[in-house]
Design brief:
single chain, SP0561-like, Four Helix Bundle (Hemerythrin (Met), subunit A), 13 helices, globular, binds fe (ii) ion
């Protein structure tokens, strides 16, 4: 689908492309469902101040898909616009696979262990007993995984190394930083809840952490990392791989230790 070259809507669309996506969605709520068709979840994004043109760039859509999406967006904003129709409804976007650079692949692999741990959070919450030492220790062990593996080891590699190649003030990088900050706040509340023996508080923040991280990881795997990989040079990639090796040395057998921990939990909750 392509917008007619001589379209009188072109200038107006140019203006829309430079507006914040949240603002554009507020004006045209039906755009949220269209973006969802292309697996672009801007409606649910916590920051959502990216410009409309950024979301097109950041999501790296194939050119035909991008034209189809822009055509549908234009049709919502300018219902009378003459636009060629396209078969590309964005559904293929949801089924696409990703190829990462070797250092970024390491982060994707770490996500797999983090996802296995957060998948156990509903079981941990359901059986949680903060009145006993063992019950409290189970939550504290889960928090140790989150603090050591997910945060110190994994998030720190993102924040201190990978993200450093990009403008920290850009909307996309600050959105992911903000998720890390919110996640740390949930951890703080979980720890407070454990020491207060406040089951409701711990359950609330464990649940919120689970929800946040599920979306965060999906966005990193499918949006942030592919976009970053497209924008780092091969020299930077080599440098990043060397820095990740240094972190791995510093953390020793962290992967093996937490793999054993997650396996133990899976055995006790899923068997
Ligand atoms: Fe992250
Ligand atoms: Fe991550």
């Amino acid at each position: 689908m392509a917008i007619n070259e001589s379209s009188p809507y072109e200038e107006g669309m140019e203006e829309y492309m430079n507006r914040g996506i949240k603002d554009v969605i507020t004006e045209h709520p039906e755009l949220e469902a269209i973006l969802d068709d292309y697996d672009i979840g801007c409606g649910a994004c916590m920051v959502g101040t990216c410009l409309l043109k950024d979301i097109v760039d950041v999501h790296g859509l194939p050119s035909e898909t991008e034209r189809a999406l822009m055509g549908r967006i234009t049709k919502v904003i300018y219902p009378n616009a003459e636009i060629e129709t396209s078969e590309d409804d964005g559904k293929a976007q949801a089924e696409r696979t990703f190829a990462y650079s070797p250092p970024v692949q390491i982060l994707v692999d770490e996500h797999k262990l983090i996802k296995r741990l957060i998948a156990l959070i509903p079981c941990i919450t359901e059986s949680m007993d903060l009145t006993t030492e063992d019950g409290r220790q189970l939550v504290l062990d889960g928090v140790d995984f989150i603090k050591t593996y997910a945060d110190s080891f994994h998030h720190a590699k993102e924040e201190d190394l990978l993200f450093k190649y990009f403008d920290a003030d850009s909307e996309i990088v600050s959105a992911f930083h903000e998720d890390h900050r919110v996640a740390r706040n949930h951890v703080k509340n979980i720890l407070e809840g454990v020491s207060e023996k406040n089951r409701a508080k711990v359950a609330e923040h464990l649940g919120a952490y689970n929800e946040l991280l599920q979306v965060h990881i999906k966005r990193e795997d499918e949006i942030l990392y592919p976009w970053m990989d497209r924008n780092i040079s091969s020299e930077q990639e080599t440098e990043l791989a060397a820095s990740f090796d240094e972190v791995a040395d510093r953390f020793g057998d962290v992967n093996e230790r937490y793999e054993v921990f997650v396996q133990r939990l899976e055995k006790s909750f899923l068997n």
